[in-house]
Design a protein that fits this description.
Largest sheet: 7 strands, mixed
Order of helices and strands: EEEHEHHHEEEHHHHHEEHEE
Strand content: 25-35%
Distance between the termini: 9 Å
Number of domains: 2
Helix content: 25-40%
CATH class of the largest domain: Alpha Beta
Shape: globular
CATH topology of the largest domain: Ribosomal Protein S5, domain 2
């Protein structure tokens, strides 16, 4: 009898405009791991978009699982992992955060750590360096978070957003480090006050589920999008065309280069069809907020 676990982690978008390094939203695009204990380490990438050749020791999930086990003075047993992913790498859809959350959950189940959701939010956010994508992948839904100097995360969790999302995924990658390199080190006080007010209004509108205001403030960022726009294919055109065809608002997904529009659910497929015609160099996907966050299911398989 071999025990297997299925770990499912949603991808995520971050910021939604001015919610810089603080607001995260889980999406119904997933990373799946099938895990079983083994006599040696083996990680098999099933999805076509994942690399086929790599060193186990360099794999992010392996590294995070070992780091998590070590935090609690546990030794991680060797595992066989089959991995599929709907999250393209370096596109701003939380692929690294989902892998981090998956690695923490792997250590949690095979080492019997009994981590709470708060523990998972703290550890994943500490590793990521900010709590936006990580908390969304752990909890599901929308998260508005801060992390103190000790790495403790405080989160307001919003669920049941009555809206859909469309992501525009270009064919180019953009590393977060490159996207951060174009940001200014300092803002003048009047500029910072306006930027902060826009972020506050976005957060308040999200909690109130005021979709018209959410859309307005998604497009009112001053912290990062004005500086990253030059790196993003069709940035201004996507914002304009999405608005003209019914989107509440459009913003960068995380650091980009993917962009994300919030739209009324009723126009979903019609909106996607139009955007596909306007932006044929992008993969345009209709998605919704995932409401569950990371999940684990268990099964036992009979062997001969």
């Amino acid at each position: 009898m071999i025990k297997k676990w299925q770990i499912t982690v949603p991808g995520s978008t971050a910021n939604l405009g001015p919610g810089f390094d603080s607001i995260g939203l889980s999406l119904s695009l997933y990373l799946h791991l099938t895990v079983s204990l083994s006599d040696k380490w083996e990680i098999i990438h099933v999805s076509e978009g994942l690399p086929k050749e790599f060193e186990i020791e360099d794999h992010l999930i392996y590294q995070i699982a070992h780091e998590t086990a070590a935090r609690f003075n546990k030794e991680l047993p060797p595992c066989k992992i089959e991995m599929t992913s709907e999250l393209p790498f370096a596109r701003g859809l939380g692929s690294s955060a989902s892998a981090i959350v998956a690695g923490i959950e792997l250590a949690n189940i095979v080492c019997g750590l009994n981590l709470s959701k708060q523990d998972k939010c703290n550890i994943s956010s500490q590793i990521e360096g900010h709590p936006d994508n990580a908390t969304a992948s752990v909890l599901g839904g929308l998260t508005i978070s801060s992390m103190d100097k000790d790495g403790i995360v405080d989160t307001i969790h919003v669920t049941d957003l009555d809206t859909s999302f469309v992501v525009f995924i270009p064919q180019v990658e953009l590393k977060t480090s490159e996207a951060r390199s174009v940001l200014p080190e300092h803002f003048e006080r009047p500029y910072a006050v306006t930027a902060s007010a826009n972020a506050n209004m976005l957060a308040a509108a999200l909690i109130a589920k005021d979709y018209v205001r959410i859309g307005r403030y998604m497009e009112a960022d001053k912290f990062h999008e004005p500086f990253r726009a030059q790196l993003i294919p069709d940035y201004y055109e996507i914002i304009q065309m999405a608005k003209e065809h019914g989107a509440y608002g459009t913003a960068l997904s995380g650091a980009g280069p993917t962009m994300i529009s919030m739209i009324p659910t009723s126009i979903g497929q019609r909106f996607v069809t139009k955007m596909e015609k306007l932006f044929p160099s992008h993969q345009v996907l209709l998605t919704k907020a995932d409401q569950t966050g990371v999940t684990v299911s268990e099964a036992s398989v009979l062997t001969q």
